[in-house]
Specification:
Elements lengths: L2 H25 L15 E7 L6 H8 L6 E8 L6 H9 L5 E5 L9 H12 L4 E5 L3 E2 L2 H14 L3 E5 L1 E2 L4 H6 L1 H10 L20 E5 H7 L1 H4 L6 H11 L4 E5 L5 E2 L5 H8 L11 H13 L1 H7 L4 H19 L4 H6 L1 H21 L3 E2 L2 E2 L1
Helix pairs in contact: 1-13, 1-14, 7-14, 12-16, 13-14
């Protein structure tokens, strides 16, 4: 058997597996909400913020509409160079739950977000700690659903992947990769039961912890120098045989991570290899079969190979779009450009990995 035939068989096995996982995630995309016995003040919302004055109004406008299950909304101003602190103070006049925490000088040996999250937890009073990024739009339904699953399944961590808002071609080329990878590679409803630590995901945009478990392990302190702390925490929790669950968000929980191709490339290249357990080699295997998987199939099975492969690819993208609340037609139109974006993303990620230096929000991480 020649190398082309071997690659063709591997390509078919991979696309069939990804198609099956995407369909599974579509069918099981939203966790069911159980009976929810809510208690006043049991949730502390924790928001690390560095130069987020432009994002905070949307987040806080959603939070102040939520009921008194949220006892406090703490925003840690991580030495922002914009009007973040002033924005928080303005909103604090409208809702007494909102409180600004002035950030300290970043200690040696810490990354900024990890330190901010640790400081927030240190001051929080709730039984459940809900970390939100400042660029998230949130509503009561999403919070209730997360709280319901935390209580029903006695979880240590519940994390949503918010619906990603993409408005420019550059965002569609790169930001869309997150859900394509997630939905077609990780069977989320059963991932916590798979005995492989890398087979897990979490998203720092929405992470709810049991405060007792968090204070026992102090995850952000434990992983103080880890750049992609959300995935690392999920892996840490899984290794400790604690219970966690990750799900795709319902309508009402949105996030616009980046506003351009350049921003998305800079941000996602920091975390690209962590989609694959920190292995750049595994990432490039994914890139090869995603971009060129059709080629050995077409050469080895000229009569039926290419139509069969492409039909699986297109329907898989439809499943991903439906599960992720993304427009199907747009995702299909951008498919060729997304392949180019994927290659560029991993070239950039590889260069950063080799240089061991990445800059984000004015800091080297």
């Amino acid at each position: 058997m020649n190398i082309i035939k071997i690659l063709a068989i591997l390509s078919l096995l991979i696309i069939i597996t990804r198609w099956s996982i995407a369909l599974f995630n579509l069918i099981t995309k939203h966790p069911k909400k159980g009976n929810l016995n809510k208690k006043e003040g049991e949730i502390s919302v924790l928001v690390p913020a560095r130069n987020e004055a432009h994002n905070l109004p949307i987040l806080l406008n959603g939070l102040i509409k939520c009921d008194n299950t949220i006892g406090e909304i703490l925003i840690y101003d991580d030495q922002s160079e914009d009007e973040t602190a002033s924005e928080v103070k303005i909103w604090a006049r409208y809702d007494k739950r909102i409180r600004l925490i002035e950030g300290n000088v970043l200690p040696s040996g810490w990354l900024g977000k990890n330190h901010a999250c640790h400081q927030l937890a240190d001051q929080a009073k709730g039984k459940y700690l809900l970390y939100l990024d400042a660029d998230v739009k949130v509503n009561q339904e999403a919070i209730d659903l997360a709280l319901s699953r935390m209580k029903k399944d006695q979880l240590s961590l519940f994390s949503f992947f918010p619906i990603q808002e993409m408005r420019t071609p550059g965002e569609w080329m790169l930001v869309a990769q997150v859900n394509i990878i997630l939905v077609s590679l990780l069977p989320m409803a059963i991932a916590s039961f798979i005995p492989i630590s890398m087979m897990v995901a979490a998203n720092g945009q929405f992470m709810m912890f049991d405060s007792e478990i968090y204070r026992k392990y102090l995850f952000h302190k434990e992983l103080r120098q880890t750049a992609v702390e959300d995935v690392a925490i999920a892996q840490h929790i899984k290794k400790k045989r604690l219970k966690l669950h990750t799900a795709l968000a319902p309508e009402g929980l949105h996030c616009r991570m980046y506003s351009s191709y350049r921003e998305a490339l800079s941000g996602l290249s920091r975390s690209a290899r962590f989609f694959f357990g920190g292995s750049m080699a595994m990432g490039w295997v994914y890139v090869f079969f995603s971009v060129l998987g059709w080629w050995p199939v077409m050469l080895s099975y000229p009569d039926w190979g290419l139509p069969f492969y492409l039909s699986l690819l297109v329907t898989m993208r439809i499943f991903v779009s439906l599960a992720s609340h993304q427009p199907i037609i747009k995702n299909l139109i951008y498919l060729p450009l997304q392949q180019i974006g994927l290659v560029h993303l991993f070239i950039q990620a590889t260069l950063q990995h080799i240089n061991r230096k990445t800059t984000w929000k004015g800091r080297t991480i």
